[in-house]
Amino acid sequence: MKHRVAGRKLGRTSMHRTALxxxxxxxxxxxxxxxxxLMKAKExxxxxxxxxxxxxxxxxxxxRLVLRDIHDKDVVSKMFDTIxxxxxxxxxxxxxxxxxxxxxxDNAEMALxxxxxxxxxxxxxxxTPAASTGADAAGKKEAKAKGAAKTKTEKKATPGRDAxDAAGKKxxxxxxxxKPRTESKSKxxxxxxxxxxxxxxx
Length: 202
Description:
Layout: H1 14-31, E1 33-37, H2 38-55, H3 60-67, H4 73-86, E2 95-102, E3 109-115, H5 118-126, H6 134-201
Antiparallel strand pairs: 1-3, 2-3
Helix pairs in contact: 1-2
């Protein structure tokens, strides 16, 4: 008969399995979201939620009980300062498991386990558009409209300028072309005069 053998062995001895759950729970409380196999996530869920319930007591004895499993003092202080206050009015169910499908290679079922409310904290810290007010959105639209109007006026003004520049270039070309022609004519006349003088002298 199967008495007092609840839980998954996960292919490990009891000491190895306890160390695994302690490490996973430490990373879960540090990052508030981790990716692991589905079976490990299901075993981690009750282990981590019991620690959160202990941290809600906010006593020295409770802190020492949590330190028995979580050996990182920074993580323990985070649990008693922020996580316990977040779940102060919540009687249980502090974590969420999201299935991610099979893993490439060994086809193991993967899952994402996270603390409830972790997504809202990350959005507020990142300053997502959801936190922006309607006035900010209206100001952005007005700025875009003004920029578009400026570009349109510049585009309209540029054809006249281009035409003036083209006319100036043409005038300079014609002037430059006229000068060498006159010079060539005067040179040809001078050459003809010298020829006549040479013939008459001979």
